[in-house]
Amino acid sequence: xxxxxxxxxFVEAARLGSLSAAARRLERTPAAASASLKRLxxxxxxxxVERNTRSLRxxxxxxxxxxxxxxxxTLLEDARQSVHRxxxxxxxxxxxxxxVDFARQWLRPLMxxxxxxxxxxxxxxxxxxxxxxxxxxxxxxxxxxxxxxxxALVARRLRDNRRLLVASPAxxxxxGHPKHPRDLEAHNCLVYFSSGSAMRRWPFQRKGETLxxxxxxxxxxxxxxxxxxxxxxxxxxxxxxxxxxxxxxEAGRLVPVFSDWQGNPAPLNxxxxxTGPRPxxxxxxxxxxxxxxxxGAERRSAK
Length: 303
Fold this sequence. Notes:
The chain is of the alpha/beta class. Helix content is 43%, strand content 24%. It has helices at residues 4-16, 19-25, 30-44, 60-88, 100-117, 169-175, 224-232, 242-250, 280-302; strands at residues 49-51, 56-58, 92-98, 121-127, 141-145, 154-159, 163-167, 189-194, 197-198, 201-206, 209-214, 219-221, 237-241, 255-256, 262-263, 268-272. The chain is elongated, with a radius of gyration of 30 Å.
């Protein structure tokens, strides 16, 4: 494969009639320019230029090669400029997936706001709690809770977050208020089902102490939004992401059960497939999400 930088150097030197002038134009050293031309000639196994200390002259093979290569480089540069112009406009489709509760409560209005700023952006949102394969679907990004295992995916943290044990005021009035995680054994716990198993083991931390409680209950679902709605209906205790229940707590619809015991950290991450460059529209949207979600958390902390 021919080196694109070597091709640019050759075409620029032919245009200017000087290897040193081409080196200056492309911000390379004379030695690097000379090595570039030599590498290209060795790859093609032909002599492209005749040169002396002041100038260079194309050989017949060099003339033919320039005639074929220069239009291709022009097309590549035009394509590069077009991409940058399109990206500057922040246009195109963003395909993403997110948990149902987060998508309904937070992502939907943020998508609306982003599209108001960038009307040329289109969204395809696959809302669901199942972990999707970003490559086979294919998707630009996923919004996921929790610490991520090592993988081929790349993650950017959008906001710190934690699990909370919550219940409705009506449930606590009828069944009593647990004082300790072990008290959950006597309560109806609403269990989330994920990755093929019911998440019955609920971890809690307090001042360096960690306690994991195995819970039970009469309702299990793989839909985190439905688990939250059951808790709102007063049917039991739920172990939910703070982001999912924050507005319910502020409105008094749900109550945090413990003041001293904390649930597991569950940071919100933007997860990308692979390590390649991201379209500007995707990078801008992720930066927008992080700014809005972080600003919201800071405002609540200041109250």
